[in-house]
User: Fold this.
Amino acid sequence: MNEIYSNLKAAWHTDTIEALRIGNTVIPTHVQLVISDLCNQDCSFCHHRMSNGVATELFPVEGNYNPNRMIPTEKCIEILDDCKRLGVKAVQFTGGGEPTVHPDHIRIFKHAQDIGLKTALITNGYRYQDIDVYNHFEWIRVSLDAGRADTYQKIRKHSGFFQVTENIRHMKDLYKGTLGVGFVITPENYQEIELGIETAWMQGASYIRLAGIISEQGSMAYDDDTYRDIINNIETLKRKYESDRFRIYDQFNARYMNLRRPDYEFCGYQYYTVYIGGDQKVYRCCTTSYTKHGLVGDLAEQSFHDWVMNSKRDFDARTCNQCQFNDKNRVINYMLHQPKHVEFV
Assistant:
């Protein structure tokens, strides 16, 4: 069972469903916080930087697609304090850019943990430090996206493959939470998915998450033969490598089966998860981040607390060209409206 990436998690937060039903202010369950838009790598598939990426519109600064733009430390602390005050349960430090590039990232991570927020981290793993703050994340996912150093260099424009794999091993030796490896499947690396799985397993990760490119092309980023080969290969590798200690989560096929224009009006996902960019702006989700379509607030002139208490996020989900959260939204919509004969379970 795909517990970590289950589409049914919304069902555990009935207070949110009730608030949506009666029109009360909805407190996000989970905040994705981008403390840095600057990155120390340059991934070819980054949907903030690639030419046909879905989240590029507002990302560059004067043509620079790797802007040195970060949320000021004190603003980060304010946002985290507001999260605690509001009753947000979890904060995920993600990108944007690379969270550990922010010069005060350790202070920011530690503050979130010290005030009792559940925290998680998505990182490229290159700047990992053997310090206690890493041991208190609920989960960490290291983006690897290659099984060999030359492919890593080609895809990420960086020579850190061996340093990152060594950091994963060190992390696992000290870390008691859930440690995963991310592998975005691209036309350049799809033939070494097994090498990536072997690397994750050998370095001690609990799982590997296989995902696909998010672009304006959708599933057309892969030709039909390549797509079928990838799907068949993943199924074979799951049978070969999965065990009680190690899982392979296939978000590649799930994403493209799901990546369609919504056929429903109400987007409930945006109320569960809020995305705050390194530009201090609030977006509906990671897919619509750094776009005018997804922009719903600006924290440069107001607090996160005030934005939550006064935000208006009504819009027609069918105006999105594609949505990777269709299944989650359908679950939320199902829970909002009681079906006929609900007693007949």
Summary: The longest strand covers residues 178-185. The chain has one domain: 29-336. The domain at 29-336 is CATH 3.20.20.70 (TIM Barrel). Residues 103 and 313 are 33 Å apart (CA to CA).
